[in-house]
Write a structure and sequence with these properties.
The protein has 370 residues and is of the alpha/beta class. It has helices at residues 2-11, 63-68, 89-99, 114-120, 128-136, 154-159, 182-186, 201-210, 212-221, 233-292, 297-313, 362-369; strands at 17-18, 24-26, 76-82, 105-111, 143-146, 164-168, 190-193. A five-stranded parallel sheet has the order 5-4-3-6-7. The protein has a two-stranded antiparallel ribbon with strand order 1-2. The longest helix has 60 residues, at 233-292. Catalyzes the key rate-limiting step in the CDP-choline pathway for phosphatidylcholine biosynthesis.
Length: 370
């Protein structure tokens, strides 16, 4: 069941391909699966700790029968071996492919010892016990063989009832052979898997060696001694000095970033203030022109007040239809009593002296009374 679900999950993953124009033709997709608890509670057992198999004779399963599917009590026994130093995702993916080769697979993983590894491949970062424990905690592994042989023999294959051997198809030259899996391929027991590009134990070690100073300073800062790191006294002082210099640089960088943020905030606020000032100044100028401009409200108010003042101090004009003084009818004249005698005709008034007669009209009487 687990193999089928893993196989189905693997088949739904499609690789990314770049088109001629540089665009992605088909992105990597992953079909969602129902929620379920598929994690294992116990690590895989070691082969030498298991009970011996039943007394049935060992009969291999061919490729067609394995692909077609076997009974539940007779899984296809697939063997994959390796060093598995600094266990990483590339190892896990290779074991996943081996587990998913057939519908019903029992995966046996062989891990070589330190002696064989140091003899044929080189020094390892992890010792054999650490490598055994790392592999047996991989979820795809059903059984772990400790101290696995460097070259597989027919006796080893028969003892562990192995049907197929899984490994990448690249010829693996070692121990005086151009390909240690050549006899397995010739026997039709080889099942190829694909390597995961970009990740390997050698790549990880290369990263550590390349950034050696960084990791030494990191571990010194975490409390490791120079003796534990195999660092000389002078280099230890050099690394401590570099760490102090880096701390100062980080502080300066933080201050610069904070100052940039402060300046940016001040600039934003100043821009807002300038915009508000411009708006207020426009509003003030508009109100000023509206009040004191050529056609402003103040000019109209002064003009209106001037008109009212002139109207108030100017005399009231007679109606146009009223008659003038000359057009009025003459009023009857009266003579004073002491001028009842006949008097000579009147002479021009301003140039002669003597008795004068006065003509009094009704209008003159009105003026005198006034």
């Amino acid at each position: 069941m687990e193999a089928q679900s893993s196989s189905g999950l693997l088949l739904t993953r499609k690789r990314r391909r770049e088109g001629s124009n540089g665009e992605t033709d088909e992105a990597e997709r992953l079909v969602k699966i129902p929620r379920c608890t598929v994690g294992l509670k116990h690590p895989a057992p070691f082969a030498d700790e298991l009970e011996p198999a039943d007394g049935k004779p060992y009969e291999r399963v061919n490729m067609e029968e394995a692909k077609r599917g076997t009974p539940p009590d007779r899984p296809v026994r697939v063997y994959a071996d390796g060093i598995f130093d600094v266990f990483h995702s590339g190892h896990a993916r290779a074991l996943m492919q081996a587990k998913c080769l057939f519908p019903n697979t029992h995966l046996i993983v062989g891990v070589c010892s330190d002696d064989l590894t140091h003899k044929y491949k080189g020094f390892t970062v992890m010792n054999e016990d650490e490598r055994y424990d790392a592999v047996r905690h991989c979820r795809y592994v059903d059984e772990v063989v400790r101290n696995a042989p460097w070259t597989l023999t027919p006796e080893f294959l028969t003892r562990h009832r192995i049907d197929f051997v899984a490994h990448d198809d690249i010829p693996y030259s070692s121990a005086g052979s151009d390909d240690v899996y050549k006899h397995i391929k010739d026997a039709g027991m080889f099942a190829p898997t694909q390597r995961t590009e970009g990740i390997s134990t050698s790549d990880i070690i290369t990263r550590i060696v390349r950034d050696y100073d960084v990791y030494v300073r990191r571990n010194l800062q975490r409390g490791y001694t120079a003796k534990e790191l195999n660092v000389s006294f002078i280099n230890e002082k050099k690394y401590h000095l570099q760490e102090r210099v880096d701390k100062v640089k980080r502080k300066v960088r933080d201050v610069e970033e904070k100052s940039k943020e402060f300046v940016q905030k001040v600039e934003e606020k100043s821009i807002d203030l300038i915009q508000k000032w411009e708006e207020k100044s426009r509003e003030f100028i508009g109100n000023f022109l509206q009040m004191f401009g050529p056609e402003g409200a103040l000019k109209h108010m002064l003009k209106e007040g001037k008109g009212r003042m002139l109207q108030a101090i100017s005399p009231r004009h007679s109606p146009d239809s009223s008659p003038t003084r000359e057009e009025r009818s003459p009023s009857p004249t009266f003579r004073l009593p002491f001028f009842t005698k006949t008097s000579p005709p009147p002479s021009p008034p301003p140039h002669h002296s003597g008795a004068r007669g006065y003509l009094i009209s009704e209008d003159d009487d009105e003026d005198d009374e006034n």
